[in-house]
Design a protein that fits this description.
With 268 residues, the chain is mainly α. Helices cover 81% and strands 0% of the residues.
Amino acid sequence: MIEALSYDFIQNAIYAGILVSIASGIIGSLVVVNRMVFLSGGIAHTAYGGIGLAVYFGFPIFFGASLFAVAAALFMAYITLHQRERMDTFIGLIWAVGMAIGIILIDLTPGYHVDLLSYLFGSILAVSRDDIYYMAILVVVIVLIVTLRYRDILAVSYDSEYAALRGIHVPFFYTLILVMSALTVVIAIKVVGLILVIALLTIPIYIAEKLSNSLGAMMLLSGILSTLFTLIGLFLSYQYDLTSGATIIMVSALCLMLFLGAQKLFGR
């Protein structure tokens, strides 16, 4: 593996893995605390419509997926804030419609089709420099937002009624968290694929939650664990010629099982 570090695509994969891990650690913590896992799953699958849109019109995949994901996040935020009793129905609807739109647009695209399996199961070794720049900018924006508005986000995440009494605009921050989740899902798709992205946003976070006593510590530890799982999975996938996204998730799942076993054996 040491000699492989001289290859650009391996370097890009490592950079991408670290950047996505940082974003996943921060946003995954907010997703879990705000009980948005199902919403994030809907956004991930809806983003496939954006991939189809990008393929059909010939513009960057990340751009098309981001447009669709953000639109889905805004729609879901509106539904959960105004028609919560119909939330499951609408999430299932846009989940299915988003994927259907993507598939139809790809079918209508003349000529060569991109390897769509890479977007279903991830292809971290195919990350380009432009992808790295996009990921880096997004991570910087997420870190800045969470750092500058940490107290507001913390209040909204744990006690929205108290936050509203303090004068915090709860719907705005709820929507902001969903939009950041959508953009994080988009960059994570390149690493683990849209089918496995929810595991990346939940497994390291579950472990970190059990070992942390604050949201900030949970975000930090989640990012470290996610980075560790991603780099180990990347190494194994390269060493044994395995699908990178699936390998990263299996490493995460194995570590979770070991953690649960240790927790049961030694107690809290």
